Write the structure tokens for this entry.
Amino acid sequence: MTAAPVVPLDADLARIVAALRAQNAPPPFAGSAPEARQRMARAILAARERHGLPEVGAVRDLDDAPVPGRVYRPATAGPHATVVFFHGGGFVLGSVELMDDIARKLCRDLDAVVVSVDYRLAPEHPYPAAHDDALAATRWVQAHVRELGGDPARVAVAGESAGANLAASAALLCRDAGRPLAAQLLVVPGLDMARDTLRLEADGRDYPMLSPADLRDIARLYMGERAGEAAAFPPSPLRAANLGGLPSTVIAVAGHDPLQGEGLAYADRLRGAGVPVTLLRHDDMFHPFLGFFEASAAARRANDDICRAFRACLASLSQAGAMSPGHVAPQEDPR
């Protein structure tokens, strides 16, 4: 399976890249972490003023959970599938507030309760802080899903980029604990913290918005003093020994993304382990396209494709607890 894009970068996204480069915009992790977060916040909030937010039924902050977060409920009658969502940002950037638009769109278009998790960020909180938070949040949702308006038979995880790493890790650990999830959605996932960034650079490809050098920054800032553990699970789900017994999975990759190969490799490994996989390839997208659905018609179509595929995956799971192929019923031990 080749990772080469078949079409150029979408024209609207290419114009955004050109404008940023004309402004000599710094790399995403340049400077201190607070400075980088401020740059991201300014850009996202400026765009939000132009486009507004998707409408959902209800939104409330989650103050009584072990990890802070925000709950989004659809306008339709429940019980609904419930999706624990982990934002992207290389374990360093992003927040529930900044990714509010993505969570709202997922809630509306999936017709699902979405619990967006405000996990701790590096470098102030290096590995395993984010992974610990992701697992704690997922298990809390499993235990409180009825209170959230959800269906216990349809608890899933979803994530973008670093958040997809957290989602994949949580799915594996829930399986190992005998509390399997119903489905997982992994968008532009970064699944190998020991990736060969020099090989990516040697390919000579231009990766706008996320470069191999940025990936080195992510690994350095998050893994910190435990860099020697990067080539193992849980920080690298792609390197987990056994992927059997995982839930039905939707994976979306972007053609102009240095992480595309990791998403493709994980899809191959999941299929080899008998896990049902829907793979969506968006060869005209760059890495963070999930947050650009208001800026590009093609990015909106890609987002819509992802939501349709995952909504169909969730709908295939009956509220009575019947599981899709490859999913292990909660009362069984998959180990």
